[in-house]
Amino acid sequence: MFVQEVALVSETTRVKTRELMRVGAALQKQAARDFEPIWSVPATIDVFERLEDVPIGYWPVIIRDDIGFQGAAGTHLDQDGQPFALVQADEPWSLTASHEVLEMLADPFGNRVIAGDSIMPGQGQVEYLVEVCDPSEAAEFAYSVNGILVSDFYCPSFFDPLAVAGVRYSFVGAIKGPRQVLSGGYLSWHNPVDDHWYQARFFGPKLTFHDLGKFDDESSAMSLREWVDQRSYDARRAYTGSAVTIQKTAVQAARDRGQLYAKSTRSRARRWRTYTKKLLGRRQQAQGARKRSGR
Ligand SMILES: [Zn+2]
Q1: 119 Cβ partners below 8 Å, 6+ apart?
Q2: Least CB-packed of 9, 23, 48, 289 within 10 Å?
Q3: CA of 146 to the centre of ligand 1 (A)
């Protein structure tokens, strides 16, 4: 069995190792419990304090204060053609990290396509870029693992020809049929007829279609994912800015849930400490008794 190895590293003082470890544990649980049974991709997600500690062969997901130039957030290929991702440390960064990790697992090199009927009127069969979190990426469709906000993702059934009752199209069930794009989400594909890339965006009151043009030689240093992300960066940013209230409500709800979780874990920790004390006390008593009886 081939296990994909992902390393989570913070390069900002805003995200402390303690928080990073809690998020890392949530991402690992999401990958093993939720993602692997659906996409058959086994993975480990481990936290490292410094980039220098990341073992060779791991794909790094780096949390930073500044993602620099536009469209740099997301998954890329490094100078050796290996996957790595940059995540901006803004709240809710666990949601972004989960998005990038899951997409890295489903399509490490950002070039995987799956054939399906086009959702754009007038087009036939097209090739969809496999970006498992994009159509339901908004915080309102996210869910919590260990009280930490993580992204919804679509299932392989997302590319089925027809909607069938009872079929799960995305993990939380927010997507109700094949190739459905939810509010705040998007979907990208290649049309072999004119060799152009297209995108459906739900960044306003309704779904809109956009011609992204040809993926030409000059962009070939990039993966399709990087190229498509760059071409939709401004629209996505404008949307995120306009949907702040919806996002805030979802993020606040997750934060409240996180606080309830923290209450439980604190109580749990207290009980473990008390029990440890009791256990050690009992041992000491037993040792003392043995000494006294001269054994
Ligand atoms: Zn994505």
Answers
A1: 179, 181, 187, 200
A2: 289
A3: 23
List the domain boundaries for the chain.
4-242, 244-295
**Residue 131 Cα, ligand 1 centroid: separation in angstroms?**
5
Ligand 1 centroid to Cα of residue 100, in Å, is 6
How far apart (Å, rounded) are the C-alpha atoms in residues 198 and 213? 7
Mean pLDDT for the stretch of residues 151-165: 96
The one-letter amino acid code at 70 reads Q
Tell me, in angstroms, the distance from the centre of ligand 1 to residue 236's CA.
Answer: 11
- Measure 152 CA to ligand 1 centroid, in angstroms: 11
Mean pLDDT rounded to a whole number for the chain: 91
Measured in Å, residue 272 CA sits from the centre of ligand 1 at 40
* Identity of the residue numbered 181: V
Q: Which residues, chain by chain, have CB under 5 Å from ion ligand 1?
A: 103, 131, 134
Per-residue pLDDT, 217: 61
CA-CA distance, 213 to 227, in Å (whole number)?
11
Distances (CA, A) of 258 to 42, 68, 95, 115, 242: 27, 30, 14, 39, 26
How far, in Å, from the CA of 1 to the mean position of ligand 1? 26
**CA–centroid distance, residue 292 to ligand 1 (Å):** 68
Instruction: Enter the pTM of the model.
Output: 0.90
Separation CA 31–CA 24 (nearest Å): 10
Distances (CA, A) of 269 to 202, 255, 272, 274: 44, 21, 5, 9
Ligand 1 center from residue 277 Cα (angstroms):
48
Contact between 191 and 146 (Cβ < 8 Å): no
